[in-house]
Amino acid sequence: MSRSSLLVLGFAAAFALAIVASARARRTDERHTLVWLFVCAAVAALAVWRHAIDILAQAMGIYYAPSALFFLCLAGLLWLVFRQSLEVARQKTQLRKLAQEIALLSERRPEPPRSEGQ
Fold first, then answer.
1. Is residue 22 part of a domain?
2. Is 113 helix (H, G, I), strand (E, B) or coil?
3. pLDDT (tens digit, 9 = 90+) per residue, 50-66?
């Protein structure tokens, strides 16, 4: 195994440990944790089985194998950005509904009695 493969494998392992630590501290959602662990496994698999990049590129009809890897990384990043934008839109809608509900509840709440000194 080459030095670059060992370096990538070490990075994938360290990243996987960081993801698991983040999940244990409840800083990430379970859905996101599984996706990131899958990414770590894919990176580790490509580091160990380097011929897989050539096979993948050939299956995609790409002649220069690293271009296939760049394409897959770009597609993955675009997918992640799209998912994050959907999540932001969902949270924005939820925040607007909560603000409206708080406004309605504060209008219905009776005023507390004031003391004469205020």
1. yes
2. coil
3. 888 889 889 999 899 88
> Do 2 and 28 reside in the same domain of the chain?
yes
pLDDT score at 5: 81
How many domains, in total, are found in the chain?
A: 2
Residues 8 and 42 in one domain: yes
Residue type, 6: L
Q: Which of 48, 112, 115 is nearest to 40 (CA)?
A: 48
Q: Where in the sequence is the domain holding 4, given as residue range(s)?
A: 1-49
Closest CA relative to residue 23, chosen from 9, 42, 8, 40: 40
Q: What pLDDT, in 10s, does the model give residues 8-41?
A: 889 899 999 999 999 888 888 777 888 888 888 9
- pLDDT for the residue 117: 62
Q: Is residue 101 part of a domain?
A: yes
Cα separation of 60 and 68, whole Å? 7
